[in-house]
Amino acid sequence: MRGFLHFIFLGCTVALSPYKYGQDIMNIEASASLLDQLYGELVDSKESREHKFNCINEGKVSTTKNNAGKSDFVEDVNYNERFAFGTFQTMNDLIRISETQQRTSRMNAHEKYLTHRSSIKFPENDDTSDLFTGGIFGGLLTFGGFKTMQCFNSNMFDHPIDIAIVGAPFDTGTSYRPGARFGPEAIRLGARRLHEGVTPVRGNGPNSKLRKVNPYDSKSHNFTIIDCGDVPMTPFDNRFALNQLYRAERAIHKHSTSGKVDIPLPKIITIGGDHTITLMALRLAYEKYGRIAVLHFDSHIDTWNPKILGGGYSDYMSLNHGTFLHYAAENGYLEPGKCFHLGLRAPYILATYDQKHDRECGFNTITARDLDDMGKEKIVTQIKETVGETPVYVSVDIDVLDPSTAPGTGTMEIGGWTGRELLTILDALEGLNIIGGDVVEVSPPYDTNSEVTSLAATAIIDSLLGLLIVQSI
């Protein structure tokens, strides 16, 4: 700004007294701030900390010198060097210093800094103990930093798994915008920070056992949790791709469990992929547990008759992300009357027929706006009283959330739940006999630069992990 000098350091700007026109402002600003920006020890030294908070009005800047002894190198520098370190006393000092002197000051001060700085103590050259301990950016990319193995290899079946996370990169069952095949990778990226500890909002109420659960700390539970990676599902044939997923998850059930928790076989959380993949998980769950109750969090009913959605011209066309629950009911996988749609709000295709057919498939409906009228407590009470001890599969389509919360999906609908509302309801399911679940329809190409949809999906999977673990605590 013309007419005033500005002393700049670490984001703090102090206006000094007026200067003479023609004075090189940029050099003065740089000499007062560059060293602090480039050399971290100056920022952390006693001199700089005290100097930073001693900006005085009326055109003066002062510091309190370090009396610690050997770290006090400012005492040893000459007048020009003190200027370069920002230890000048008045505006007159600044004006007396020529451009050449300023440049010399910076060079001398740099040399003095290098002479007196503390050396960094590196580990021994052959010490790699800090290179395989994980962290946000270390090692292979897995969900929450969990260990991985070749879960689908029959030679690995003697390696125990209690909870498996499986990616299903499949999106050729979509009716609108594809891209969910990239969901598993994006969700794992969003899960890099999940190992950091117990969230203060997990569970509902002070007596919730979920409050004690940290899925990423084996000291808080006895579960062996493995990220099995992605199933290599072909993009060229839907029928064969879904068969690949079925065989892969069937292989996981052949693994032994750790024996540390009371579960008969490994539980699986599947990361989609479009919602068509859920049919294979329901088939497998039915084979192991019998008829199951599905809690279907979605903006769409997904029980459409294939003759309505897909045309019904061929079996290949008939199975898609809007008809898979029709087939699950038709094949007898579901416990009639004990299944729920939650967060429903998308338009029907043929309203009267679709609603009648949905009831025939065995579903109860709680719409997105029912949450406003009923509240979380009534919704959860209705679910628990209806489901009872029936094995429960939780399937979450990310489009149950409002597009403001989760824009990265193929078929978004306005008027959905917030992330907080969904997570609150999920945590309130504590106590149900949950045997598995999935999160689907995350489509990264439509997400924000901040990857907010993927982050929402990681929080949902985090909740599902908690629900699976808490049953054995």
TrEMBL record:
The UniProt entry, under Pfam families, shows: Arginase
Q: Does the keyword Phosphoprotein apply?
A: no
Listed SUPFAM superfamilies:
Arginase/deacetylase
Give the source's domain of life in one word.
Eukaryota
- GO MF annotation: an example: agmatinase activity
Name the family the entry cites: Belongs to the arginase family.
Annotated signal sequence range? 1-15
Keywords for this entry?
Hydrolase, Metal-binding, Signal
Q: Name one GO biological process term.
A: putrescine biosynthetic process from arginine, via agmatine
Q: What is the name of the protein in this document?
A: Agmatinase
